[in-house]
Specification:
With about 120 residues, the protein is mostly helical. Helix content is about 85%, strand content about 0%.
């Protein structure tokens, strides 16, 4: 149980730290947020839990393919906000568009024989 609490505290602390840093410098926060900290932590936790380099390798490969559609969120959200949409509405639409892109990517990968 203590192990799970450590995982939660470390992961949460990183997210809170980035949020707080963004109040002072959006550039530094963006740099920190763009580093795949969550992915790296997930791979570390997975390796500690399973000692399986195969599972870590599979996770890393899947993250690679699914980062591509996730970038749509970072294009869509600022465009919608610049159009004057309410933040929550813009975020919801951007998430919906991103989810659609995930579906398209997974479908395209399946069509080409890549199994994420």
């Amino acid at each position: 149980m203590a192990y799970y609490l450590v995982k939660i505290v470390i992961t949460t602390a990183l997210i809170v730290a980035i949020s707080e840093i963004s109040k002072r410098s959006s550039l530094i926060a963006a740099i920190l947020a763009s580093i795949p900290i969550v992915s790296v932590l997930a791979m570390v936790w997975l390796y500690i839990d399973t000692k399986s380099v195969i599972q870590v390798s599979n996770l890393a490969s899947n993250v690679f393919w699914l980062v591509l559609p996730s970038l749509v969120l970072f294009l869509t959200l600022p465009l919608l906000l610049k159009q004057g949409l309410n933040f929550y509405l813009a975020l919801g639409i951007a998430i919906g568009v991103t989810a659609g892109c995930y579906f398209l990517m997974v479908s395209a990968l399946g069509y080409f024989g890549v199994r994420p």
